[in-house]
Design goal:
Its cofactor is Zn(2+). It holds the Pfam family Peptidase_M1. It is an enzyme of class 3 (hydrolase). It comes from Sphingomonas psychrotolerans. By secondary structure, the chain is an alpha+beta fold. Among the domains are: 314-447, Neutral Protease Domain 2 (Neutral Protease, domain 2), CATH 1.10.390.10; 453-555, Immunoglobulin-like (Sandwich), CATH 2.60.40.1840; 734-862, Zincin-like fold, CATH 1.25.50.10. Helices cover 41% and strands 21% of the residues. The chain has 28 helices and 31 strands. β17 (201-208) and β18 (214-221) form a beta hairpin. It is globular and about 85 Å long. It binds phenylalanine and zinc ion (ZN). Zinc ion binds next to α4.
């Protein structure tokens, strides 16, 4: 029986409260790698020191390694043993030299953790626990070492040899080989180790730091991709300057290299001085990358660069502290991006992302605190909660402290913990000390999971108004009862008649279960603007009418609040349609008309504001998600908006026809509004809509417009649909990143036959599960297509489960990340829920399942 099988091999749980300091420290390490895809020799020397008074042996983590030789203080020894995958060496003194030798086969490494091959190059990925797949080592982030690395390889296949730190020496060997030596002067944990060997070229640049040191920058790619690296290099220079200006943080090595690789489980990795990137976050030119891609590249380049301080110089004591580096670094990259263009639009995008991925996570079976208490497989905790909710937690502290004190607090944090492995608690203490605030209760943001809900009721009594606030933190797995949180709420009142602000913006801290606020001397009926700028990552329910929301969507002076009012109006309308079949769209139509025709507004903002909430977000508002009814209600509203405002959409479309491609905030905004308008023109059923989309597709001089035309056609039934898909495929055959868009567009199609088409695409000659981007572009995209994935037949569930079982055999980390859509079964009707559960049960019962998948799938059944 499946249960018996999994019970006997139930994987170990690691608990935060079990933390102990390392038994042995490793102040220095020398690595000597003879690189070969089939057989790489790794010779490692560790200088180890006993930590404290104990008589425990040296335990070195290993994963799939066989020790070919072990030496202690220069002499070969037989006095060692294996404990499972780990190497145990008894030692008598307080300091020793340990030498080990292993052989690994990077070309057979399909997990893409440790040393692996990708498109002819060799590269590493060590976070979180990949270093133990390369050599025996105490592979935990609080063991900090100075690294010396020697790389030897065939010179023709691997002319470029890179590692962390600075290049020290290089030379030639007999037999066509060469070598290079790199030293990293900074202490670092093993997860930040990296090497790359390949036939690569660099886009080079320099950056002069604030103290006048010149840093050599290099973006390394295969020769044909060199022309697509200028944007990333530019973003890197902007990031370096920004971190000096905003946080006073200077770069610390003489070189900073970035390498783009095609096969990568995540976005990118911040290895010291040698960032390794998924090529989708480096390569861009107007013909192949969308505006979204350009923005994402700048954000990820910034993110990884910022880790040099928030992550590398100050690292994490243990993996429960992951948000210490990730939440803070996401907050830093979000602020950077906000400074490059429209801060309001950036905030809207970030909140939309939070609601699309983190809110559902917090409301489902995989909910966990920003600082988790336990895990089976740490790779499963690189989540929207750790990253994006973690960033919101930092943002709230920044809001509470204000900019000057927040900067003083981060200065204190970097100074105090430089060169060490720190905790979330250390960070909060710096905020308290430099900020002069007590964050005792605020710390619940680290320990309690779940999205707080606030109800805000404004009641007028003559010239006074009473605002009643109540908060509720819902139960989550393992946390049935919650304490009230500290919620920083920015709010303001507007006169519903004159539209004038009735007070300055206030920041209030809601700390109790319930709190009341009184406003006096009001000359007209007030309208409440609350959680402005999304000052707290919560759900707010108010007693505002459709009229209030329409008013705010046109008059609020906080752009985020304006967007939010429109979204709420749309949501209320859609939820009413789904539940009572209501079709009164007049209020939404008028509000959209006002925004669309307000020439004072930024085009990018308009494009965001007039977009309807997604199918899934509508579903999140309902007790039981009804995918078909949601789809129909949303399409009906889209059609009505399209028809009622057809002239306005056409005007916006025409007005947004940029002449030639330019990457600027205003040109991006125009392109965005253009495709959003195209979507509404198509929804109106206008006779020329398909041709309009096809013309946009074929005449485009950039990928944003081309993709906009394509996705509009892909959702429809025109014969031009096939023609466009075929033309796109022919044009970009051989360009993996663009083919991902081709697969993704079809997987996200709102057509009724999407499930069938996606099943067919798996057999396409360009489809493969072994490339994570490709797997995500089809399987990942399909599973977030609410209508198609939740087809009543259950075929979508079966299909995804089949693919994940197959993917798990190759790449458990990437497979496990795709489990959450199946885990949302509780939100659906009984028939769907039963089918989803059955697929999860089938996954859990699969022989040889990885612990990554076991953890995600079994927790999702609870
Ligand atoms: N630390 C990386 C980042 O967020 C993410 C990552 C995690 C990459 C694990 C690879 C493996 O910047
Ligand atoms: Zn990160």
């Amino acid at each position: 029986m499946a249960d018996a099988q999994t019970a006997t091999q139930a994987p170990n749980v690691t608990r935060r409260e079990d933390y102990n300091e390392p038994d042995w420290r490793v102040p220095e390490i020398a690595l000597d790698l003879d690189l070969d895809p089939a057989a790489t020799r790794v010779r490692t020397t560790l200088w180890v020191e006993r930590g404290g008074v104990h008589d425990r042996p040296l335990r070195l983590d290993g994963d799939g390694l066989t020790a070919l030789s072990v030496k202690v203080d220069g002499a070969e020894t037989m006095d060692w043993h294996m404990d499972g995958p780990n190497l145990v060496v008894p030692l008598s003194g307080s300091a020793h030299t340990i030498e080990t030798e292993v052989e690994i086969a990077p070309e057979r490494n399909t997990q893409l953790q440790g040393l692996y091959a990708s498109s002819g190059m060799l590269c590493t990925q060590c976070e979180a626990e990949g270093f133990r797949r390369i050599t025996f080592f105490p592979d935990r982030p609080d063991v900090l070492s100075r690294y010396k690395v020697k790389l030897t390889a065939d010179k023709t296949r691997f002319p470029v040899l890179l590692a962390n730190g600075d290049p020290i020496a290089q030379g030639e060997l007999d037999g066509g080989k060469h070598w290079a030596e790199w030293h990293d002067p900074f202490l670092k944990p093993s997860y930040l180790f990296a090497l790359v060997a390949g036939d690569l070229v660099a886009n080079r640049g320099t950056f002069t730091t604030m103290s006048g040191r010149e840093v050599q920058l290099g973006i390394w790619v295969r020769a044909p991709d060199l022309a697509k690296t200028d944007h990333a290099l530019h973003a890197l220079k902007l990031s370096m300057a920004w971190d000096e200006k905003v946080y006073g943080r200077e770069y610390d090595l003489d070189v900073f290299n970035i390498v783009a690789v095609d096969d990568f489980n995540f976005g990118a990795m911040e290895n010291k001085g040698l960032n390794v990137f998924n090529s989708r976050y480096i390569l861009a030119d107007p013909d192949t990358a969308t505006d979204y891609d350009y923005d994402a590249i700048a954000a990820v380049v910034a993110h990884e660069y910022f880790h040099n301080w928030s992550g590398n110089r100050v690292t994490c004591r243990d993996w429960f502290q992951l948000s210490l580096k990730e939440g803070f670094t996401v907050f830093r990259d979000q602020s950077f991006s906000a400074d490059q263009g429209s801060a309001a639009v950036k905030r809207i995008e970030d909140v939309r992302g939070l609601r699309a991925s983190q809110f559902p996570e917090d409301a489902g079976p995989l909910a966990h605190p920003v600082r988790p208490d336990e895990y089976i497989e740490i790779s499963n905790f690189y989540t929207a909660t750790i990253y994006n909710k973690g960033a919101e937690v930092i943002r709230m502290m920044a809001t509470i402290l204000g900019p000057e004190k927040f900067r003083a607090a981060t200065d204190l944090y970097f100074d105090r913990f430089d060169g060490t492995a720190a905790t979330c608690e250390d960070f909060v203490q710096c905020m308290e000390q430099a900020g002069g605030v007590d964050l005792t209760q605020f710390r619940r943001w680290y320990s309690q999971a779940g999205t707080p809900r606030v109800s805000a009721t404004l009641a007028q009594e003559g010239g006074r108004a009473r605002l009643s606030l109540r908060q509720l933190v819902p139960p989550t797995p393992g946390q049935p009862v919650k304490e009230p949180m500290v919620l920083p709420l920015k709010l303001k009142l507007f006169g519903g008649f004159t539209g004038r602000p009735m007070c300055d913006e206030q920041l209030i801290l809601l700390k109790e279960d319930a709190q009341e606020l009184l406003f006096e001397n009001l000359s007209e009926t007030p309208v409440l603007s609350i959680n402005r700028g999304f000052s707290a990552p919560i759900v707010v329910e108010t007693n505002r009418t459709a009229k209030d929301l329409a008013f705010l969507s046109a008059h609020d002076d906080d752009p985020f609040a304006r967007y939010e009012a429109m979204q709420q109006l749309m949501l209320d309308t859609l939820v009413t349609s789904v539940t009572n079949g209501g079709t009164d769209h007049a209020a939404v139509i008028e509000a959209v008309r006002n925004t669309l025709t307000d020439s004072a507004l930024d085009r990018a903002f308009v494009a965001e504001a007039v977009l309807l909430p997604s199918d899934s977000f509508i579903g999140d508002q309902m007790a039981v998600v009804e995918p078909e009814a949601i789809f129909r209600a949303r399409e009906a509203l889209r059609a009505d908006l399209g028809k009622a405002l057809e002239a306005e959409w056409r005007a916006a479309y025409e007005g947004s026809l940029a002449n030639r491609f330019e990457y600027s905030p205003s040109a991006k905004g125009a392109r965005r509004l253009k495709t959003v308008s195209l979507g509404y023109i198509a929804a109106s059923g206008a006779a020329d809509a398909d041709q309009l989309a096809f013309d946009q597709f074929s005449l485009a001089d950039n990928m944003t417009d081309r993709q906009g035309g394509l996705t509009t056609l892909v959702n429809g039934a025109s014969p031009l649909r096939e023609e466009a898909l075929e033309a796109f495929y022919q044009r970009y055959q051989g360009n993996g990143l663009v083919l991902d868009k081709w697969f993704q567009a079809q997987a996200l199609s709102t057509r009724e036959d999407t499930a069938e088409m996606v099943e067919r695409l798996v057999a396409h000659r360009d489809f493969t599960l072994s490339n994570p981007n490709r797997a995500r572009s089809l399987i990942g995209a399909f599973s977030v297509n609410q209508r198609a994935f939740h087809d009543v037949s259950g075929r979508g569930y079966r299909f995804v489960a089949d693919q994940l079982i197959a993917l798990d055999k190759l790449n458990p980390q990437t497979a496990a990340k795709l489990i959450p859509p199946l885990g949302r079964w509780k939100r659906f009707d009984e028939a769907r829920a039963a089918k989803m559960r059955a697929e999860l049960e089938r996954i859990v019962a699969t022989p040889g399942l990885s612990k990554d998948m076991f953890e995600q799938a079994s927790k999702s059944l609870d």
